[in-house]
Amino acid sequence: MTRPSPTVWIVHLCGAVKNGRSRVRLSDRIFCATASRASAERLLRMTRMPRGTWWRVQAYVVDNIEGERWPLYYYSNTGRRLARAPAGDPYCWTTVRTLPQ
User: Fold this and answer.
1) Segments of 1-101 assigned E as strands
2) Number of C-alpha atoms within 13 angstroms, CB side, residue 19?
3) What is the rounded radius of gyration, in angstroms, for the C-alpha atoms of the chain?
4) Contact criterion met (CB below 8 Å) for 58 and 12
5) What's the predicted TM-score (pTM) here?
6) How do residues 19-28 score in pLDDT, each as one tens digit?
7) DSSP annotation of 25
């Protein structure tokens, strides 16, 4: 009998980067990996990021080749849990758009 592969929690830092006068590019960077969601949340509460950024935390199973979807959670730049994805999350919206005037 094989042991199940461990789960890791990947913490992404997401945000909007101004590109020119009226265009914005959405950015998504891996910030770190943790062993549990609780440790990821502790880290987010201790870390402050600028306005316009948010965190995305997602579970992954190590050596998962099936490509299954795992739990996904969003947090504000101060570490507060969000009920839904921000409107500009690059995971959901990956094109360059013109900012409203």
Assistant:
1) 7-18, 23-34, 53-61, 72-76, 81-82, 97-98
2) 12
3) 15
4) yes
5) 0.72
6) 666 666 777 8
7) E
